[in-house]
Amino acid sequence: MHPEEVLPAVDTGVWSWSTADGAVTLDAVAAELLGLPSPDPATAGIRTAPADLRARIHGLDYVGLTGAADLARIEGTFAEATVRVVDPDGAVLRRLRVRLRFGDPQARTASGTVQEVTEPALGDVPRERQLSREAFLLDAGRALAEAPSTDAVLRTAAALALPGLTPAGQAVLVQEDDHLRIISRHGSWAQRTDFPPLPLATVAPSCEVARTGKPVYLVSREEFRRRFPAVWDPAERAGMNSWAYLPLTTRDGVRDVWVLAFREETAFAPEERTVLATVARMLSQALDRAQAHDSERESADELQSSMMPGDLPAVEGLALVARYVPTGTGLSIGGDWYDVIELPTGKIAVVIGDVQGHDVRAARVMSQLRIAIRAYASEGHDPEVVLRRASRFLHRLGEGEADERFATCLYLEIDPATGAMAVARAGHLDPVLTLADGTMLIHPTEGGLPLGIEEDPDYPVTPHVLAAGETMMLCTDGLAENGGHDLYTGQERLQRAFHDTVGKPLEAVADALVDVVAGPGADRYPGPHSHHSDDDIALVLLRADRARAQGEDGGRDSARRLKLVVPQDERERIADTRGKLRGMLHDWQHPDSRDAAVLALSELLANVMLHTGGPAEVRADLTGPPGHRLLRLAVADTGAALPHRRHPGELASSGRGVLLLDELAGSWGVEPRGEGKAVWCEFREDA
């Protein structure tokens, strides 16, 4: 009697499944069990689309069946699963035991049997476990897909909590020159196991997987010793009891190997093998994507580096350090740049900027703009002229382009012998001044529009003197805002880095700043915002290396000095100036007297803004040992009228400036100058 005569007699149907087009062929019994129309008696069966099969099988069961079929095809074994047949409303009609077998891994069609069962078989996976397994695979797929680099993919794979499996270690081996070489190891077993390069012809489980593309499961030490005696000795010393070796098939067909070792004997049940095979496929795809991304990123980094200046010039009296760190995802090429230019006058120009966008066009515009600024600076033009010509260049460069770009830029010219600076700013971040004791202050500077928006804008120049031992930082916004930070919380993070590197070489300071933003140290300072920007970072540090003034005890100069200008048309800088003074007094012993000093400064600045037509020049000097320091504030203006005591009424909105100074300051006075005056006041820390 033939099987096709016996099977219907025991209510068992026959079916086949084509992996080429998904079509399913069923005999009369299988069709009836699945609720499909009976075939014509004149034909051997019916051929139906995969959608018809999916419509009659519970969704979770269909996913499990396809996973089992994939595993059977890879391993050359048979697939077996229990599925629920449902009606259009989702009600379960019956349960079927489904079996499938592929002839070989290259076969395109599987065939098997379908039989009704009344109760779940003993080998069935409980629904809770099945749901847990599906949830795990979804989470694993998402985590692997989000990993941006090869290292991140390998770390993610090692951190996966495999359901029902607890490996003592994992390793990934890759093919290179007909050998298998380890690229990743995690866990105690992997750390203490040697993985010498193995020729593919070696009789070893990893090499067999690489040659055949089929996984190898070794459930016991005896099985390992029997099947692979040549490599048993090192495996025995590791003390493991079960091993799984799975193929990782790359885009070009090369088979790498994922190895897992287990302390306890593991039978590797079908559902566990399905999970491992599925994770191996996801890991293969993630590694393919990550390796392609790594290759693109390496090429982009080389291109970006070629657009940056080479070694910075050695300048007597001035230390210079620069960093460029691409941190964004995707093609890491963008518009951030810096430059250091030796000028014909003997001065040094330092430039930093950021072209709008993060693509190849931004990099091209950045390269052209950097060359143009270098040319204008080398001709000996003043900072405001350099930026004005650069804006005209960029404006004309974008004419006729569908995608016009603008750029922010800061141009600083410094005399290394004296520390005298001239700063011009085109929509860029203000520079940061760090005092010798690590105190970080934002240095407000006058500014104009970003480059390229107008053809002939104005760029006012802000003077400054970099004192001995002080450091000035120029940076792009990635240094402040990456990692979920805004501009203000990012500044607090940088302040910590400056405090931690007091007295250290400038190279160490630059490394520390990059580390707290884009390195391992970034995890210590998470930002308050859920949205994490990952912009590129450009950074230049300048430190005055002229001989420092020494105190009587020969120690570090404890003086702090602040000098800046508040223009009439930028009154919002009054708040910046108050913040800068507050930062300068961050360790002042008495908060009340610190607040009094800030209030006095605010009153002096308001008087200049209201009663004169010129800018306010602010100078603050903090001298003396901690706990006994003297703060002297002086605000100069071009007005000729001297302050005098007034007696305002209860409802008057002005006229109390002198009364406030009398009440707040320990002493105050007026110094006449050739063009105007300077009002000063003093505060003692121990008063």
Describe the structure.
- The chain starts with a helix and ends with a strand.
- The strands form five sheets. It has a six-stranded antiparallel β-sheet, sandwiched between helices. Strands 9-8-7-12-11-10 form a six-stranded antiparallel β-sheet, sandwiched between helices. A five-stranded antiparallel β-sheet has the order 13-22-21-18-19.
- 34% of the residues lie in helices and 26% in strands.
- It is elongated and about 115 Å long.
- The protein has 19 helices and 27 strands.
- With 687 residues, it is α+β, with helices and mostly antiparallel strands.
- Helix 4 crosses helix 11 (270-307) and helix 18 (591-611) packs antiparallel against helix 19.
